[in-house]
Amino acid sequence: MKKRTSFRLVLLALLLITVGLCVPLQTFPRTGILRLGDAVRLDIFAHRIAGADRVAAVWPSSSVRLTFQGSEGRQILQAVAAAESARTREGDTATTRQFTHKIVFYTGTNILGQASLSGSLFLLNSHDPIFCDHSGRLNALISQPLTKAFRESWNQTE
User: Fold this and answer.
1) Its pTM surpasses 0.85
2) Sign of CA dihedral 92, 138, 79, 109
3) Contact 114, 69 (CB under 8 A)
4) What's the half-sphere exposure (Cβ side, CA atoms, 13 Å) at 91?
5) Residues 73-113 pLDDT 10s
6) How sure is the predictor about 51, in pLDDT bands with cuts at 50, 70 and 90?
7) Domains of the chain, with CATH numbers?
8) I need a surface site. Which of 9, 105, 142, 143 has the fewest CB within 10 A?
9) pLDDT by residue (tens digit) across 109-137?
10) Measured between alpha carbons, how far is 134 from 78 in angstroms, rounded to an integer?
């Protein structure tokens, strides 16, 4: 009787393990795995730029450049570190936006990292996914002032 009960428990355990391994692989959304990879990618980038003492925002096709240091620079670093992947439920990151701004993170004269920015959305490389700053700090601190400075410089050249 004892062997029969042990056999049933072992069979039940194997059945539960098999079902446990198969079901999540089918029901766990692909987007969840991609978002996890995005979070790791962003965490590595945030760690790399954490020591930045200066953040420069540039409009690549012009001479417009804004530099942030001190508390504004730290706010930008915090906004980047707190951002999340902008993937949809289908795992897509497609957007019609053009990433016209570039932000560069420096320590002294060394470049720690850079990203392309459009409002509150940014990407680290052209082949990487898009990240979103839900706090709106990147838009308020960089995008809006940089766009305003670009328009003013454009109006002065005419």
Assistant:
1) no
2) positive
3) no
4) 9
5) 999 999 999 998 887 666 565 565 788 889 999 999 999 99
6) very high
7) 38-157 (3.30.1490)
8) 9
9) 999 999 999 888 998 887 778 898 999 99
10) 12
